[in-house]
Amino acid sequence: MRVIVIGAGGHAKVVIDAIERSGDEVVAVIDETARTKSLLGYEVSTRVPSDADGFVIAIGDNAMRMARFEHYLATGLRAVPVVHPSAIVADDVHLGDGTVVFAGVIVNRGTTVGENVILNTGCRIDHDCRIGDHAHIAPGVSLSGGVAVSEGALVGVGACAIPGTSIGSWATVGAGAAVVDPVPDGVTAVGAPARERHAT
């Protein structure tokens, strides 16, 4: 595939590596703010080429990534998934358009992953999980079987969730947290066991 990468920050470096290692081709790196002129040897431009197979959003922030995803879909471009060759993804797993699966990730049977999701380095997604659109599963996260992560949620570095629990839409689970009870929509939960963090 010939892929357009949208974004030119640190996250984009890892996306580009996954594309290159999978044997696909980066045809453009787009940054509308033009903060840098090149990234990993690629010219950073604001011009979208017409000869690509699709795009992927290389922005870590979930809300920003969703906004750019919807913008580029509206232009008629197609979002494409990117899977690092070292990732292990079961044959029946559904990966939504624009989702990126990084090095060392494992996704087991019966799992459904939405659109524009980040499955970051070395995370483990067990059987029958459901990951909503625009979510970010950070490096080293472990989700046990049947966990549901809703749209836009962020599960922080090294966090884990017991079987069958849920994380609400646009919720944040802090680094190293242990989710043993459902995390409501929009809540930030930290600690082990994870509990809502209240403003002080």
Write a structural description:
- The protein is of the alpha/beta class and 200 residues long.
- The chain has 2 domains: 73 residues, Rossmann fold, CATH 3.40.50; 107 residues, Hexapeptide repeat proteins (UDP N-Acetylglucosamine Acyltransferase, domain 1).
- Helix content is 12%, strand content 30%.
- It contains 2 helices and 24 strands.
- An 8-stranded mixed sheet has the order 6-9-12-15-18-21-23-24, with helices on one face. It has a 6-stranded parallel sheet with strand order 7-10-13-16-19-22, with no helix packed on it.
- A hairpin with a 4-residue loop joins strand 23 and strand 24.
- The longest helix is centred in the middle third of the chain and has 13 residues.
- The protein is globular.
- The protein starts with a strand and ends with a strand.
- The mean pLDDT is 95.
